[in-house]
Design brief:
The structure holds two protein chains of two kinds. Chain A has helices at residues 4-24, 28-53, 57-87. By secondary structure, chain A is mostly helical. The radius of gyration of chain A is 17 Å and the shape is elongated. Chain B contains eleven helices and no strands. The chains are: A mainly alpha, B mainly alpha. Chains A and B meet through helix 1, helix 2 and helix 3 of A and helix 4, helix 5, helix 6, helix 7 and helix 8 of B.
Chain lengths: 100, 290
């Protein structure tokens, strides 16, 4: 049995990497993928605690996280295509203006 | 931080090669991982209830090689007696098992691929690295007993969501200019320093956790994490959130369609010479995008 703390360390690392991607990268697609990374880190934590406690409610929560990620990805990517048609760029620094 | 070679036509070929290699490596790793983990689970879950119960007085099922850690096991009841070094490793410490080896392999691969997602310049390479990362994560889910969620992870995450990402990346077909130049080095350095502090704080907080609730794995039911068990959970205590998830997905579908329709209508209006103040450069991509 792998100790639960190992999973927590890995999840913390994945989350920090995801935050770094959101903060540092300026490509909107990569930012969305970093968000997926953070969601997966949360899922790993939830499932590790579900195993440690023997409680299957964590599996339900992980499933909801995946469903939310699917919804977020579909809407986010549709918005991204819209933004690209409007601005001809997905570089976040180019999207500073609200009007025009 | 950044691969200079992945740009231009030669770089595109190199990127495609790298993608294919990544995908092949990821799928092979996932297949081997799942097979190995399940084989391990089959052989190990039969006598599992004896050593997994924490503090079982006999502990006769433990292999003789774990004499050292077994001597430390009774001190787990007194939490935080052993100091901060043995966080969570106390109760089930039976030496270096095959499961820990598998965790290290898949954890390291996951971490490496996640780093590639953030650092590589080409978003397509990053997307495929993310797919490989999801495969390795699903292997970790299997090790946690979450068989159903592992399957869902592969089918929905690596299958549906990442295909959507790759589709959008290829639809946009970003040129080198649109990928963005490297600028704002100061802000990047500042952000990385902040994240280093954040990671250090996370590490500290995790190390300060008391070992007792972490290191004592409970014996779980036979249908833990299987489709049957998860289904009972969904349609029992979690019925209302489950239905709400369906509503959420419906809203997401309607929203995505609405956003796309508006984009098409705007582009069509500007292409037909309508007096709407839509910017002129919006017309060519709409013509080529369909």
């Amino acid at each position: 049995m792998v100790p639960t703390s190992w999973y927590l360390y890995l999840a913390a690392f994945l989350f920090v990497v995801g935050v770094a991607g959101v903060v540092v990268r300026r490509n909107a697609i990569v930012v969305l993928m970093s968000v997926e990374l953070m969601l997966n880190a949360a899922n790993l934590t939830i499932l590790a605690f579900a195993r440690a406690r023997g409680d299957m409610g964590g599996h339900a929560i992980a499933f909801f996280v995946i469903a939310t990620a699917a919804a977020e990805a579909s809407v986010g990517l549709a918005l991204l295509i819209h933004v690209f048609r409007h601005f001809r760029s997905v570089h976040l620094d180019d999207l500073a203006g609200m009007k025009n | 931080m950044r691969l200079r070679g992945l740009s231009g036509t030669r770089g595109t070929r190199a990127a495609a090669l790298a993608l294919a290699a990544l995908l092949a490596a990821g799928s092979i790793a996932a297949a081997v991982s799942l097979a190995a983990t399940w084989a391990w689970a089959d052989t190990a879950s039969m006598p599992a209830p004896v050593p997994r119960v924490p503090g079982a007085p006999g502990a006769a099922g433990l292999p003789p090689g774990s004499a050292g850690p077994r001597g430390r096991a009774p001190t787990i009841g007194t939490a935080a007696a052993g100091g901060g070094t043995a966080t969570g490793e106390g109760a089930a410490d039976e030496g270096f098992t095959i499961e820990k080896l598998l965790f290290l392999v898949f954890g390291a691969t996951t971490a490496l691929l996640a780093l590639m997602v953030v650092t590589l310049r080409n978003p397509l390479t990053g997307a495929l690295a993310l797919v490989g990362s999801f495969f390795c994560l699903s292997a970790l889910y299997v090790m946690l007993g979450a068989h159903f969620i592992a399957a869902v992870q592969i089918i929905i995450y690596a299958g549906a969501i990442m295909v959507l990402f790759v589709f959008v990346i290829m639809l946009l077909n970003l040129s080198d200019r649109e990928l963005g130049a490297a600028k704002h080095r100061f802000i990047k350095g500042l952000a990385l320093a902040t994240l280093a502090v954040l990671g250090w704080l996370t590490w500290r907080n995790l190390s300060a956790l008391p070992p007792a609730p972490l290191g004592a794995p409970v014996a779980v039911a036979a249908d833990f994490g299987t489709v049957k068990g998860v289904g009972r959970t969904f349609f029992g205590d979690w019925l209302f959130p489950f239905e709400l998830a369906g509503v959420l997905l419906l809203v997401a579908v309607v929203g995505a369609v609405a956003i796309s329709r508006r984009a098409v209508r705007n582009a069509a209006g500007s292409a037909a010479g309508a007096p709407a103040p839509a910017p002129a450069p919006a017309a060519p991509p709409a013509a080529g995008g369909h």
